Amino acid sequence: MPVTDVHHDSEARSLTIVADFAAPVERIWQIYADPRQLEKIWGPPEYPATVVDHDLRPGGRVTYYMTGPTGDKHAGYWDITTVDEPHGFSFDDGFAEPDFTPKTDLPVSKNVFTFTGHDGGTRATYVSTYASAEALQQVLDMGMIEGATSAINQIDALIGG
């Protein structure tokens, strides 16, 4: 499995996931830059994603929904803040109504995804930071660690690892 470390820090209000892939940085970047590939890895296997809008540039927005096993849909968005192709990007990730209006009662995370060369492949570091320890705990209680880990682990199949 690609995920090698998961750590949450209530004091720093952060969740960090580290994963190693047997593919170059540019290949890992491509997964996030291509909405059809992103759909294959964003969300756990039992909640596949459908990307509706994909504008991966500063000020751009990515909108998506995940469909559960019973057909339930959960919308979300990324507001892109920085892009350093192919080394990573940062964005605010939030839950949304079906029309992609932000749900203000659920936490928004500030995310930094970094891709660096490591042992002939790529080390991906995913850091999500929340406004409060309570917001972090809320997403942990929702199964964020398990969901994100199973989603990231899908990358191996996509790259043929």
UniProtKB/TrEMBL annotation:
Transmembrane domains' residue ranges: none
Protein name: Polyketide cyclase
Pfam families: AHSA1
InterPro entries membership: ASHA1/2-like_C (IPR013538), START-like_dom_sf (IPR023393)
Native source organism of the sequence: Mycolicibacterium obuense
Activator of Hsp90 ATPase homologue 1/2-like C-terminal domain boundaries: 22-159
Family classification: Belongs to the AHA1 family.
